[in-house]
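We were asked to recover a plausible sequence for a given structure. The inputs and outputs are reproduced exactly as logged, with field labels preserved.

PROBLEM: sequence recovery
POSITIONS: 239
GIVEN STRUCTURE:
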């Protein structure tokens, strides 16, 4: 069964736009859990434009499902945050400073030495590690030698092709990458630009996906459909 982790960055963006604590990020996270989400994802960035570092400490004390923290491990502040809070999972993303949103996976060949070293640090602390990877078999193969527990398939390319009506073309490289990852003993997560329309085909095609992390589309849907109903719709989309 594929688990749904709700990324609540957009809730933090809304809160920060007026200052104060409305909407209450912790309450939203707890409500997501109550409505059926099996995990909560946050992606703090150095400028704290949405998730603040203090949010991570506050959430860690309250949430009961799987806590996933995404971020760039080349930022020491991020590494320190993860080691202090010890989430169930850390997802390593190769963002640049000031990047609007994640837009590519790791070059697991060029970055092999760095990834091995930093993954070992997190695993020593008892934290499961996932790394962002494009659906490229060479990158998946090299990811398997870094020591990571899982890869997260970056799905923007899939989402764009799906929306253009090319779903078979869209899914093909992801099927190959996932099959190789499974063969190499890696768990598989997926995320970026997934929504309730392209999600069913992804999961039907790759039932071995362990977890999807979804924020923007889910929160946008919740504006019209309500948060509880939206989470249930996404869970149904996962089968």
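RECOVERED SEQUENCE:
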């Amino acid at each position: 069964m594929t688990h749904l982790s709700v990324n609540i960055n957009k809730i933090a963006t809304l809160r920060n736009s007026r200052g104060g604590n409305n909407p209450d990020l912790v309450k939203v996270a707890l409500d997501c859990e109550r409505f059926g989400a099996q995990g909560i994802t946050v992606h703090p960035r150095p400028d704290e434009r949405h998730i603040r570092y203090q949010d991570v400490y506050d959430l860690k004390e309250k949430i009961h499902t799987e806590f996933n923290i995404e971020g760039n491990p080349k930022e020491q502040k991020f590494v320190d945050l993860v080691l202090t809070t010890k989430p169930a999972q850390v997802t390593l993303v190769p963002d640049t400073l000031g990047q609007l949103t994640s837009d590519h996976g790791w070059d697991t060949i060029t970055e092999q030495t760095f990834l091995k070293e930093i993954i070992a640090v997190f695993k020593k602390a008892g934290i499961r590690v996932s790394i962002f990877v494009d659906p490229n078999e060479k990158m998946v193969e090299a990811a398997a030698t870094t020591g990571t527990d899982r890869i997260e398939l970056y799905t923007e390319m899939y989402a764009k092709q799906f929306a253009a009506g090319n779903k078979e073309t869209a899914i093909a490289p992801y099927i190959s990458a996932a099959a190789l990852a499974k063969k190499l003993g890696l768990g598989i997560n997926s995320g970026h630009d997934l929504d309730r329309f392209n999600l069913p085909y992804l999961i039907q095609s790759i039932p071995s996906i362990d977890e999807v992390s979804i924020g923007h589309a889910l929160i946008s849907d919740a504006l019209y459909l309500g948060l509880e109903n939206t989470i249930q719709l996404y869970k149904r989309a996962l089968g």
